[in-house]
Specification:
Number of strands: 2
Helix content: 55-70%
Largest sheet: 2 strands, antiparallel
Strand order of the largest sheet: 1-2
Order of helices and strands: HHHEEHHHHHH
Radius of gyration: 22 Å
Number of helices: 9
Protein name: Ankyrin
Strand content: under 5%
Shape: globular
Length: about 170
């Protein structure tokens, strides 16, 4: 390959590398955003209505991991809602349909091995704030007997609060 071929190939390759992400990004921009009112309705239903969640998810499957912004850094998914109110049946339904699980949901279900692993990996997670400022201890208490061991473990690590101010 001579110098001219090398430079031409390099310029073309570089141009493709620069253009490709822009083409992909512009195609992503064409996908419509979820309607914020529908997201809010879905997340709100996660506190109390499995039937509404099922209906909305059937109509809008991409809602599964949508988060509503309640303002002030208080983001909540439907799974987060079900988890902090202790609605295990709804939380399990969402998990069974591909919702992204998290440490709060694992706490609700008493998954002590998962909790210990996460806290070993990231000790500050002990003081993480879930939706509305609810702590891991709050979720463990909502889990009842199934998560009693997790609650005791969290307390043994010094966690006392069930809610932390978001601001």
């Amino acid at each position: 390959m001579n110098r001219k071929q090398f430079l031409t190939t390099g310029v073309l390759t570089t141009g493709l590398c620069i253009a490709a992400p822009n083409v992909i990004f512009s195609q992503e921009q064409k996908k419509p955003q979820l309607d914020k009112k529908i997201v809010q309705h879905f997340v709100s239903a996660g506190h109390k209505s499995l039937e509404t969640v099922k209906e909305l998810l059937a109509e809008y499957p991409t809602l599964i991991n949508a988060a509503h912004d309640w303002r002030g850094g208080d983001f909540e998914t439907c799974l987060g809602a079900a988890s902090h109110v202790g609605y295990k049946e709804l939380a399990q339904y969402l998990l069974d349909h591909g919702a992204q699980t998290n440490v709060f949901t694992a706490t609700l279900f008493g998954k002590i091995d998962i909790i210990k692993s996460i806290l070993e990996f990231s000790p500050r997670t002990l003081h993480a704030k879930g939706p509305h400022g609810y702590t891991l201890l709050h979720h463990a208490e909502r889990g009842g007997e199934e998560s009693k061991e997790v609650a005791e473990y969290l307390k043994s690590l010094g966690l006392k609060k069930t809610k932390i101010d978001l601001f």
